[in-house]
Write a structure and sequence with these properties.
Length: about 300
């Protein structure tokens, strides 16, 4: 059953008033079951469109959030994303919860986390680890002592999992991260590999790399940038790409089916871009046609702009 099969009668009440009875029902039953997903998806998109038209204001949005009760507490994935306990969207802890498929221990809340994790966006976030791991596998086979620059370290789990699987690897990681809490988290996780994982605090917007790297990986940062900053950062980072190396930039696709859910309940806003737009920005940054390509992870929600010298 798809959301397109949901028949919604014409009602004159506002979108948020039509949405509230569904939320009240789902809260009473302990969260959405599989059969509820299409209807919930439908109303999230409907409400998000109403919000973009200016028909849902701060008070209406507040009433929606209130209707969820503890289903929007930090003990749920959606509530943690909305609360932003580290002060910003997409922090290292929510990303690591996504990576690990974290579920609430409260039986009244776990159904909400199941709903969260089956969405396309969390699947795409988990898939981007796999993209990095494939690149590292290829790089390790070609150049065993390769150097990797990772911008925005997040939880550091993508490095950790690959190093656990490849303990003898001589690949070294240099990481830049602005959040001290993220640095502490990633260093504790990667404690067995700190001879190969080096993290320093700094603002990516001010980076001027002096060394050359075989891979520059920026998976979850550029989709917070406007186009002007996006182009400027490509120009800043391309000199750091060594011979036969590449700069890989992740960006959420404008076809992201989880966008309504992310923005409405998580207040998580990104600059979504198409494959064509990413190619255009590469050109604006001065990268010639033969030196960039765009591909995606299996969900085709996270796109990757791959640039070489």
């Amino acid at each position: 059953m798809s959301s397109s099969s949901i028949i919604v009668p014409a009602i004159t009440r506002s979108s948020h008033q039509r949405f509230l009875p569904l939320i009240h029902r789902l809260v009473r039953q302990g969260g959405p079951g599989l059969k509820d997903y299409p209807e919930l998806d439908f109303w999230l998109v409907d409400l998000h469109q109403a919000m973009e038209r200016g028909e849902v204001g701060k008070d209406e949005k507040g009433a929606i959030h209130d209707a969820f009760g503890k289903a929007l507490s930090t003990d749920t994935m959606q509530g943690f994303a909305l609360a932003k306990p580290h002060g910003y969207a997409g922090d290292f802890e929510i990303i690591d919860r996504i990576y690990q498929g974290r579920m609430s221990g409260d039986p009244e809340l776990v159904a909400w986390d199941r709903y969260y994790h089956q969405h396309a966006a969390p699947k795409a976030v988990r898939n981007r680890k796999l993209v990095l791991h494939r690149l590292l596998d290829e790089l390790s086979a070609r150049k065993p002592n390769a150097r990797v620059l990772k911008i925005a370290v997040g939880p550091g789990r993508s490095m950790y999992e690959w190093l656990v699987a490849n303990p003898e690897s001589r690949i070294s990681f240099e990481c830049l991260e602005i959040d001290p809490a993220a640095i502490d988290y990633a260093e504790r996780l990667n404690r067995p590999f700190l001879d190969r994982v080096h993290i320093r605090q700094g603002n990516a917007l001010r980076i001027r790399p002096k060394a050359r790297y075989d891979l520059v990986w920026v998976a979850g940062l550029f989709d917070y940038f406007n186009d002007r900053t996006f182009v400027r950062m490509i120009r800043r980072l391309m000199p750091a790409v060594g011979e036969k190396g590449q700069l890989v930039i992740g960006n959420f696709s404008n076809s992201n089916p989880s966008r309504a859910y992310m923005e409405l309940l998580g207040d998580w806003h990104l600059h979504h871009r198409s494959e064509d737009r990413l190619q255009t920005l590469a050109k604006e940054a001065g990268v010639e046609d033969d030196f960039y390509v765009v591909n995606g992870e299996p969900e085709k929600v996270n796109l990757f702009l791959r640039l070489s010298r």
